Amino acid sequence: MKDDVRPVDARGIGLASPADPVEQSLYEIRAKIHPRAVRGWFAAWRWALVWATQLVFYGMAWLEWNGRQAVLFDLVHRKFYIFGLVFWPQDFIYLTVLLVISALSLFLFTAVAGRLWCGYACPQTVYTEIFMWVERRIEGDRNQRMKLDQGPLTSRKFALKAAKHAIWAAIALWTGFTFVGYFTPIRELAAEIPAFSTGPWESFWILFYGFATYGNAGWMREQVCKYMCPYARFQSAMFDKDTMIITYDPERGEPRGSRSKSADPKALGLGACVDCGICVQVCPTGIDIRNGLQYECIGCAACIDGCNQVMDRMGYARGLIRYSTTHAVEQHLTRREMFVRALRPRVLVYFSILGAIIIAATASLWLRVPLKVDVIRDRAAISREVEGGLIENVYRLQVMNTVEKGRRFLIHVEGLPGAQVAGDGKVELAGASTQMIAVKVRVQPAALEAGTHKFRFVVEAEDDPHVAVNEKSVFIVRK
After folding, report:
1. What number of CA atoms fall less than 13 Å from residue 204's CA on the CB side?
2. What is the reported pTM?
3. Residue 191: CB atoms within 10 Å
4. What is the pLDDT of residue 43?
5. Within a 10 A sphere around the Cβ of 451, how many other Cβ atoms?
6. DSSP bridge partners of 376
7. At 2, is the pLDDT very low, low, confident or very high (cuts 50, 70, 90)?
8. How crowded is the C-beta side of 212, counted as CA atoms within 13 Å?
9. Rounded Cα–Cα distance for residues 412 and 477 (Å)
């Protein structure tokens, strides 16, 4: 029997035979990305939206309206305040409509111009921009950061890293505090934190949301967009060849190659791309847009600004990398022709459905009656005879005054011959409050036959008869 002889390399180390199992990792080791700072039209827009979104997020929690927080989702008391509107759990339909509008808006914007949300307004993009700005201010731009990361741990490096992470942690905790401030009145929360008297849930969510912000924007960054966000995976279903995306024009740019500013690219047989790699260096996800559209591209347009800067220095026309469509690049369409083709059936359908839902939701909010009534029969006293021989049924009415103005409501019945409500039939409710009221309805025995009889409770505001609600119920007469 022959010995199993394996081939060896020049160093005498045995090589694996074809039959040997080969271990291969299914996970790519992350190479840290050091995006380069870029200026330009799209960078200015991105920072404008950073300012706008954060002014709204951090500032709106401190606004007051009618003596209370303007926007407050009070889960404890099950009331949701949005300026002059008060929503209750029964208004859950409006949350559903809001989610549908958000989804359809995302579909519409994506079909027209790709990942606009991801590139400009997504919280991951916004906070990554803020954290990278802090990083650049402390550690320097791309080359300086790369040199610092590759160098040994010195006191200077430790101080710079410590300062950066301290500022990141402060921003993250303030973000968590503001987030919780929309569910717990933020002024109360601000008074509790110095005294370490916040509740367990408030403390948990401040730390959790702060940790998530710190980890996502400071450490994971493009990993969230590439691996955690589902939108990157299904965006292709909303793209077609008339969707405006960030494109590289290979017909104009290839063959690429370096050259001096004074050189004639045609004489050298080169395209407009000087192969400087700026488009890759400024990309927050580290892709090369010259390889075509990739799912990692978040549509931030940093590569457009970077390429335009190079084109300006070389004296070439801008737009080697630009917002365009596949059809526009392939068929050399003008901008007007490109925009006309954008109004295709898919976009028109999205726009029509979205417009109809927004109009219907707005009309529903405008016409909404600020009163809700639920009728529950008192099972302990279904039907009984009381003084004077009257037949009495007892009901429990849950009356909800959904506005912040206190009101007096009148209660009476319709559709039941000779019926009367015991007492004065009035109830007074404070603003944004609910009350359970026992209501006794009495009828002369001769007025109704034995059995069940349908009728309606009518509850209306004493100061405004238009604020009224009708609720059906039944009156029982026993044999």
Report:
1. 3
2. 0.83
3. 12
4. 95
5. 11
6. 396
7. very low
8. 14
9. 19
Residue 18's pLDDT is 54
Distance, in Å, from the CA atom of 378 to the CA atom of 203, rounded to the nearest integer, reads: 43
Q: Where in the chain is the domain with CATH 2.60.40.10?
A: 371-477
d(CA 307, CA 311): 6
Q: 10 Å Cβ neighbour count for 27?
A: 6
Report whether 378 contacts 395 (CB < 8 A): yes
Confidence bin at 1 (pLDDT 50/70/90): very low
| CA dist., res. 399 & res. 374, Å (int) | 7
By percentage, how much of the chain surpasses pLDDT 70? 94
For 371-477, the fitting CATH number among 3.40.640.10, 2.60.40.10, 1.10.510.10, 2.60.40.420 is 2.60.40.10
Is the confidence at residue 245, as pLDDT, over 50?
yes
Could you give phi then psi for residue 427, rounded to 5 degrees?
A: -145, 140
DSSP codes, 418-455: T-EESS--EEEE-TTEEEEEEEEEEE-GGGS-SEEEEE
- Does residue 7 surpass a pLDDT of 70? no
